[in-house]
Design a protein that fits this description.
The structure holds 2 protein chains of 2 kinds. By secondary structure, chain A is of the alpha/beta class. Chain A has one domain (49-229): P-loop containing nucleotide triphosphate hydrolases (Rossmann fold), CATH 3.40.50. Chain A is 28% helix and 23% strand. Chain A has 5 helices and 9 strands, in the order ααβαββαβαβββββ. In chain A, helix 4 (116-127) packs parallel to helix 5 (144-157). Residues 232-243 of chain A have low confidence and may be disordered. By secondary structure, chain B is α+β, with helices and mostly antiparallel strands. Chain B has helices at residues 14-22, 48-52, 61-67, 80-92, 121-135, 147-156, 168-173, 184-193, 199-202, 206-213, 215-225, 254-275, 307-315, 358-371, and strands at residues 6-11, 31-37, 40-46, 72-75, 98-102, 106-110, 139-144, 242-251, 277-288, 293-304, 327-339, 376-381, 391-393, 414-421, 423-425, 435-438, 441-448, 452-454, 466-473, 478-484, 493-499. In chain B, strand 9 and strand 10 (293-304) form a beta hairpin. Chain B is elongated. In chain B, 37% of the residues are buried. Mean pLDDT of chain B is 85; it is low at 343-353. Classes of the chains: A alpha/beta, B alpha+beta. Strand 3 (108-112) of chain A pairs antiparallel with strand 12 (376-381) of chain B, so a sheet runs across the interface.
């Protein structure tokens, strides 16, 4: 009796997770996005597509780093041929940079909205469009009600949404599935080689609904994410600078 | 605009040919049609045999009988030309949708953009003429830029029936004034003045011509030359894609407006689907009781004939319609329609919609109708090095990538619209900087790539080249900085242009 109750609870839990945008364990294996250990932070160990993620980027450096990691995620989300919408009121993303992460910039449609209100309206409409690979929006402020509306939209369409938040004071509570913080880390190249190496980031999952927050080091190398395990020591010396 | 071309078909013996078809025994008999004019029978049409023997239109039947002993005189059938030409015109719609009856003895076809379907103008005209001749009609036809010139060449031309584009003025010169479709009174005047060809008076000043021959003459001349447009009275007028919905009671509620839009759209979409067309631009007009007309335009990114989608586009704007005392008439007109791609639906796949997908296009329609099409951007690569010029705006969703996105040179994730000046310390002038100060913060540079020199595109703007460096500071933050100009140059300065991931 007890065991079956447990089963029922587990089953219900799985159902709730699915409604919230998490993939069931079976489908999970196939749908990884190649982020390795980070994906274990999420329920069932799989990156929740069909949910809304929040990424905080307080300054230009963080925004650039987030843009890189996000492009890497888009790369796997867009593999099946979907398009992506990027909504902003003050866009600084340079489209050609996406091609470094194997995202064809011509498959991203940029909506340069006039107001914050428009950004959220466009995002909601886009999230309802089944079959879009992803929707990215740069927003300053979002209320709990607005975020709930977005959540409802993705629950039926299974589109992945990303909110880029550049105003930390206005973070507040919302229904996002995870809160990310991506900061740049010193890159490394093979010993002795001069110059700047592959993009490397400190990826912090500050909050994961039904999951375990954590901190990882990732780099983008050979068209994929690679978890940086041991930190190699860099010598800071003038002669490393390329002439 | 498409270049206009016209075919004029002249039935030289329209009614007599028709009668010969009905009564084959008349083939070898000279005969005429005659009508009662002030107590005498006047010939209105003569067949070829009669004409050869000197009988002509306008002659008294009695005189003609004296010339041709066996001449058969048949009573004129009133309105027969119109009837025949209408029937022949309908038949000719296979050659062009725009056919007009040209009384009393011809047809006029606007064939712009049709001839290539028959393998060129020569084949096209030959096809029309031989088909009509084999049916039993003695026809001549001509093809020129204007209806007037085609008319003239068909009836009076002696050299060739097809006048190349722009050649109508030269072709008209040697023709008589009658070729200009003029009133007999005016023609008489030309005759009296001794003008036997158009050449002989075309050089005369316009005011002098107007004084002598009237405004109508100048209009005919301009129409033949192509200076004045001529509208044909088409047999089957091209119907605009428009629907009307008058209301018995003025409409004042949102539901009422929605029903009106739905009804109009249904009718319009039915026609569009049947013709394989879709709307790019449409306008809904609401005529209010107080005389105001409210216009609601919509536009789409791909031609659409999807009822629900088009309705949603209007739905977004219903609140702009203030009915006040009520709306008594709704009209819906598609201003721009295009052929829909037959495989539009095939592109849809549940796995994800590509850039050309209908669902995506519909989403973008919705967005552009609400927030404006100028806010939607898509970029294509451009083979230019200057960073700001390395991409261009795509004109449509379907525009294909012709160049490729370059991956060999690193480009920053963020690019400042305007490079910002930085203060720099560098050991050697030709080296990347050791440290720089940006917005009051010091950045010590730990790693740097070799310079990438990007030259100005001299044909675009003048100025100095830029030497770009990818640099990384002690905290791992990566920047794109450049020195504009040569290091030895006094005016050279350092700028920060972008941020790398």
């Amino acid at each position: 009796m007890l065991a079956s109750k447990k089963d029922i609870v587990a089953q219900l839990q799985q159902q709730i997770l699915q409604w919230e945008g998490f993939a069931p364990p079976a489908a999970a294996r196939a749908k990884g996005i190649g982020m390795g250990a980070i994906e274990t932070a999420f329920p069932n160990g799989v990156f929740p597509a069909g949910a809304i993620h929040e990424m905080i980027c307080p300054d230009a450096e963080h925004t650039a780093a987030t843009g890189g990691l996000l492009a890497g995620i888009l790369n796997s989300l867009m593999k099946q041929g979907g398009a992506c919408l990027w909504i902003s009121t003050s866009r600084t993303l340079f489209p050609p940079a996406l091609s470094r992460f194997n995202v064809a910039p011509d498959r991203v449609i940029f909506i340069d909205a006039g107001t914050e209100k428009e950004v959220l309206w466009v995002m909601e409409q886009a999230l309802k469009c089944e079959g879009l690979a992803a929707v990215v929006a740069e927003v300053k402020e979002i209320s709990i009600i607005q975020s709930r509306r977005l959540q409802l939209a993705v629950e039926s369409s299974r589109v992945t949404g990303f909110l880029l938040r550049n105003d930390l004071r206005k973070l507040g509570a919302n229904t996002c599935v995870a809160r990310w913080e991506i900061s740049p880390l010193p890159s490394s190249l093979e010993e002795g080689l001069p110059g700047v190496g592959y993009p490397r980031w400190q990826v912090n999952l500050l909050r994961v609904r039904n999951g375990t927050p954590g901190s990882w080091k990732l780099e983008w190398i050979n068209d994929g994410f690679n978890e940086v395990k041991e930190e190699r020591i860099h010598t800071i010396s003038e002669n490393r600078i390329a002439g | 605009m498409m270049h206009k071309r016209f075919v004029s078909i002249w039935f030289r013996h329209l009614t007599t040919d028709w009668l010969t078809l009905r009564r084959p025994e008349l083939k070898t008999v000279p005969f005429v049609f005659a009508d009662q004019v002030r107590n005498r029978m006047v010939i209105t049409a003569a067949n070829n045999l009669a004409e050869i023997q000197g009988v002509s239109k306008g002659m008294a039947a009695a005189d003609a009988k004296a010339i041709v002993p066996g001449l058969e005189v048949i009573d004129e059938i009133h309105g027969q030309e119109t009837k025949l030409l209408n029937a022949l015109g309908e038949w000719c719609i296979r050659y062009s949708p725009q056919v007009a009856v040209d009384l009393p003895d011809g047809l006029m076809l606007d064939i712009s953009g049709c001839a290539h379907l028959w393998g060129g103008e020569r084949e096209y005209l030959k096809e029309i003429v031989t088909r009509l001749i084999s049916k039993g009609y003695d026809v001549r036809a001509a093809l020129t830029d204007t209806a007037g010139a085609s008319w003239a060449v068909a009836r009076f031309g002696k050299i060739k029936p097809i006048i190349e584009p722009g050649g109508q003025a030269d072709a008209l010169l040697s023709l008589p004034p009658a070729a200009l479709r003029l009133d007999p009174v005016i023609l008489d005047r030309f005759k009296k003045l001794g003008f036997y060809t158009i050449k002989s008076f075309i050089g005369t000043g316009r005011s002098a011509l107007r004084r002598r021959f009237g405004q109508d003459f100048l209009l005919r001349l301009d129409q033949a030359l192509g200076n004045e447009e001529e509208h044909l009275q088409l047999l089957q007028p091209l119907e605009p894609y428009a629907e009307r919905l008058p209301c018995l009671e003025p409409i004042r509620t949102r539901t009422g407006i929605e029903i009106a839009i739905q009804t109009l759209l249904e009718a319009l979409v039915r026609r569009l689907v049947a013709e394989g067309k879709g709307i790019r631009n449409a306008v809904l007009k609401c005529y209010r009781v107080d005389g105001e007309i409210i216009q609601i335009p919509i536009g789409t990114n791909l031609p659409s004939n999807q009822l629900t989608h088009l309705f949603r586009l209007f739905e977004l704007k219903i609140e702009l319609i203030k009915p006040k005392l009520g709306i008594e008439l709704f009209t819906l007109e598609a201003l721009k329609v295009e052929d829909t791609a037959p495989d539009q639906e095939l592109l849809w796949s549940p796995e994800g919609c590509g850039i050309e997908d209908t669902a995506l296009a519909e989403l973008l329609d919705k967005l552009s109708n609400k927030i404006g099409a100028d806010k939607i951007h898509r970029y294509l690569p451009q083979e230019r090095y200057w960073p700001e010029h390395s991409l261009k705006l795509a004109s449509s969703l379907t525009e294909k990538v012709t160049a490729s996105w370059r991956k060999d040179k690193l480009r920053p994730s963020l690019l400042l619209a305007r490079p910002e000046k930085i203060e720099v310390t560098s050991l050697l002038p030709d080296n990347p900087p050791m440290l720089f100060i940006y917005q009051g913060k010091r950045h010590t540079i730990v790693k740097a790539d070799d310079a990438e020199r990007i030259e100005r595109e001299w044909w675009e703007n003048e100025g100095v080249h830029r030497d770009y460096y990818v640099v990384e500071d002690e905290q791992g933050r990566r920047y794109w900085v450049f020195r504009s100009g040569h290091y030895a140059d006094e005016t050279s300065a350092w700028y920060l242009h972008g941020f790398f991931a």
